[in-house]
From TrEMBL:
Record-stated family: Belongs to the short-chain dehydrogenases/reductases (SDR) family.
Chain ranges of the Ketoreductase domain: 14-206
SUPFAM superfamilies documented for this protein: NAD(P)-binding Rossmann-fold domains
Signal peptide location: none
Protein name, per record: SDR family NAD(P)-dependent oxidoreductase
Length: 266
């Protein structure tokens, strides 16, 4: 059984696993789940970040690359093995493409057209698709398998408003996140038969290290188009924790768009 202390609050007595918990939105979710009583496991490909975030709230850290299905299965097995159950899973691990962002920045500075699709390599395409989409598949499969015998559980995945308000120069990212929405909604329809709720949050621009890599021209256009500007990681953690909480007991297969208003930038 777990030796992580659980507290009082909405998640008292719950065991939670947060992928991508070493940074940004995931780290904010870790802090909120811990503050609201959960025993939290933090998983990230950057082991030092996972360890630092975990240490700050008395959680347990795991190094895992979500593109590695065997490693994902092993982490889920380790959590269930030590805690006896897995109540909440928040899958935030994901990437953008710094090279594509550099090309967008270049175009912004030169006043020329954006050319990402013409220069996108197979490797860059596969990296984004494998981390964002394959990773979500691996996490959903492993955690639904683990929760099914319990007959309960809540899973929240993270998509992006980029798949609705498609940004210029993000073809692989937008495609991966549109697929995350469809994958999560399809799994939600199956998993609810086992008492498991799957939902998704689709953030607009959020102030995290990922957003720090956004070209200034794109950031300025986003700021101008959005009613509320950039969100904080904590605002997204609020949305995610709501979907994971008993307050969302009747919410299944939702894609909650949290983008502060209209962010269409073309
Ligand atoms: P971030 O870069 O701060 O955090 C992402 C975390 O995922 C990092 O800790 C990173 O190490 C981890 N990660 C990356 N690849 C991994 C892998 N293969 N296995 C395990 N962990 C891995 O970014 P963030 O802004 O907090 O992003 C969190 C999620 O929100 C992502 O899925 C991102 O696509 C999505 N999102 C972010 C924004 C934004 O503006 N920041 C907008 C829409 C959607």
């Amino acid at each position: 059984m777990t030796d992580i202390p659980t507290g009082t609050g909405r998640f008292a007595g719950c065991t939670a696993l947060v992928t991508g918990g070493g940074s940004g939105i995931g780290a904010a979710v870790v802090r909120q789940l811990a503050a609201e009583g959960a025993a939290v496991h933090v998983a990230d490909v950057v082991a030092d970040n996972a360890a630092a975030v975990a240490a700050s709230v008395g959680a347990v850290a795991h190094a895992v690359d979500v593109t590695d299905a065997v490693a994902v299965d092993a982490v889920v097995a380790a959590v269930v093995g030590s805690a006896g159950s897995l109540d909440v899973v928040v899958h935030t691990a994901g990437v953008d493409d710094p090279q594509a962002k550099a090309w967008i920045r270049e175009a912004g500075e030169s006043g020329g057209p954006v050319d990402v699709i013409g220069r996108l390599t197979d490797e860059a395409w596969r990296r984004v698709i494998s981390i964002n989409l394959d990773g979500t598949f691996h996490v959903l499969r492993a955690t639904v398998r683990a929760m099914r015998p319990q007959g309960r559980g809540a899973i929240v995945t993270v998509g992006s408003s980029a798949s609705f308000d498609t940004l210029v120069g993000y073809p692989h990212y937008a495609a991966s996140k549109a697929a995350v929405h469809a994958l999560s909604q399809s799994v939600a329809k199956e998993a609810v038969g086992f008492g498991i709720r799957v939902n998704t949050v689709a953030p607009g621009p959020v102030d995290t290290p990922m957003a720090g890599r956004t070209p200034p021209s794109v950031r300025a256009a986003m700021e101008a188009a959005g009613a509320l500007g950039y969100a904080s990681a904590e605002e997204l953690a609020d949305n995610i924790c709501y979907l994971a909480s008993p307050q969302a007991s009747n919410v299944v297969g939702a894609v909650l768009l949290s983008n502060g208003g209209r962010f269409t930038v073309s």
